[in-house]
Design brief:
The structure is a single chain. This protein has 2 domains: 2-178, no CATH class; 195-310, Distorted Sandwich (Glucose Permease (Domain IIA)), CATH 2.70.70.10. The chain contains 8 helices and 19 strands. The protein has helices spanning 2-13, 32-48, 58-67, 84-91, 95-101, 133-141, 147-152, 156-159; strands at residues 73-77, 114-118, 122-126, 131-132, 160-163, 166-169, 174-178, 195-198, 201-204, 211-214, 216-220, 226-228, 233-240, 246-251, 255-265, 272-273, 278-282, 292-299, 305-306. Strands 8, 11, 12, 13, 14, 15, 16, 17, 18 and 19 form a 10-stranded antiparallel sheet that branches. The chain has a 3-stranded antiparallel sheet with strand order 4-6-5. The chain has a two-stranded antiparallel sheet with strand order 1-2.
């Protein structure tokens, strides 16, 4: 009963958007009474959406945020076990939109990094100074935004003011840009993994028991799971290769991908493959402690290893 009461209180509180955005037409902030009510709702929301407030656990709060009909925007401090797609699943907005708002050229997140998260498709613009609204809108139109939707989706009394006859965003205000997103290199997931057991970077090798650099991601999946080409390209290797065991290598436009420890190879050298084509099956060949896919990315120009996180969500 107590948890139900908390959820009802939170459902009322989320009509205000954490971090400065207000739900359109909930209040007119020209009125002192409305402004006071809005501030109070924002305080309640900020408290209720954090576990430290002692009201809802993170899991419960995320469930309410995902289900909310109104837009909720908040700042999130990245934890040691956070990654972009995890945050997207928790808050309800696809990872590409959150990546766009935070301008993450590399989708890797660092502990203690501050990111803006939310529960709808679109981007959040934070005004660094007094910014003419028309200029901001034109900028986001390049990313698929529609002017009429922007004007219909924001509480202008709260975030903007007229200066010299021009509608301008107030410094520090946040503008909601529905459906806008940037383009990043995104690969198809090569396997439906349950978890990533080893990431890109130095690690203690599970078999050799020495500290070595790990060239890619180890994606745990059941033996025999299908492995797909992450992008279209040409197969340049298909066979046994040392610690990789059974391995497929595909050359794409600017990078090359490798798929190791396969139980079965389904392609041949010289074969053209399309994105999402089946190329093999998960196995544990080569230096491996159990069924998983070793996924690796190298730059074509110089063979330099790339963090797969830059290309996968």
């Amino acid at each position: 009963m107590q948890n139900r009461k908390k959820l009802l209180i939170l459902s009322a509180a989320v009509t205000a958007i954490v971090g400065g955005l207000a739900a359109r037409n909930v209040f007119s902030l020209n009125s002192p009474t409305a402004a006071e009510a809005g501030n109070q709702l924002q305080k309640e929301t900020a408290l209720l959406l954090t576990e430290t407030g002692g009201t809802l656990s993170d899991k419960e709060a995320h469930k309410v945020i995902r289900a909310a009909q109104c837009l909720i925007v908040k700042s999130h401090t990245v934890g040691g076990n956070d990654w972009l797609e995890k945050l997207a699943q928790e808050y309800g907005a696809p990872a590409l939109y959150i990546r766009s708002t935070n301008n993450l050229e590399d989708s890797s997140l660092r502990p203690s990094q501050q990111v803006i998260v939310y529960n709808k498709k679109g981007m959040v613009h934070t005004a660094k100074s007094v910014e003419p609204v028309d200029q901001v809108v034109k900028f986001y139109e390049k990313f698929g935004a529609k002017k009429e939707k922007i004007f219909a989706s924001n509480n202008w009394d709260e975030i903007a003011e007229i200066q010299d006859g021009v509608l301008c965003l107030k410094p520090g205000s946040r503008l909601w840009i529905p459906e806008a997103r940037k383009s990043f290199p995104i690969f198809f997931r090569p396997v439906a993994w349950s978890r990533i057991s080893s990431r890109f970077g130095f690690r203690r090798h599970p078999i050799l028991k020495t500290k070595r650099f790990h060239d890619g991601f180890d994606m745990v999946a059941p033996f025999g799971s299908p492995v797909y080409a992450s992008e279209s390209g040409v197969v340049t290797f298909a066979g046994v290769s040392g610690g990789y065991g059974n391995m497929v290598e595909i050359r794409h436009k600017s990078i090359t991908t490798r798929y190791g420890h396969l139980s079965k190879i389904s392609v041949e050298v010289g074969q053209s493959v399309k994105k999402k084509n089946l190329i093999g099956r998960v196995g544990s060949t080569g230096l491996s402690t159990g069924p998983h896919l070793h996924f690796e990315v190298r730059r074509n120009s110089d063979g330099q290893l790339q963090n797969p996180r830059k290309y996968l969500f």
